[in-house]
Amino acid sequence: xxxxxxxxxxxxxxxxxxxxxxxxxxxxxxxxxxxxxxxxxxxxxxxxxxxxxxxxxxxxxxxxxxxxxxxxxxxxxxxxxxxxxxxxxxxxxxxxxxxxxxxxxxxxxxxxxxxxxxxxxxxxxxxxxxxxxxx
Length: 135
Known about the structure:
Layout lengths: L5 H8 L23 H4 L14 E5 L5 E3 L15 H4 L6 E3 L5 E5 L18 H4 L8
Antiparallel strand pairs: 1-4, 2-3
């Protein structure tokens, strides 16, 4: 390992770029401000339970639908754009059925086969959860 001169070490500590084969990235934060990614980043948004049962809907073949994945839409089970403010990290699931059919779309937002209900709403964690207030 090569030793750096005091001047080279000072340049590195000031974020002076590439020195001695070492790439140093300048901080975007002002000097003296401690940046901790674990403190400033938050957990990704989680969907809320919109209903404790599925929504039976008539789907039309070839029609595009947007299933609400965040649980905040007032047009359940479909997206009304509320996620843009209430859950910006969650997007609706867009899908197009291949045939006309009645389907059960997930209301608890925990299904493993979105947008369709897989029975997850029957689990204790969903059934004991408090639903968000309805406007």
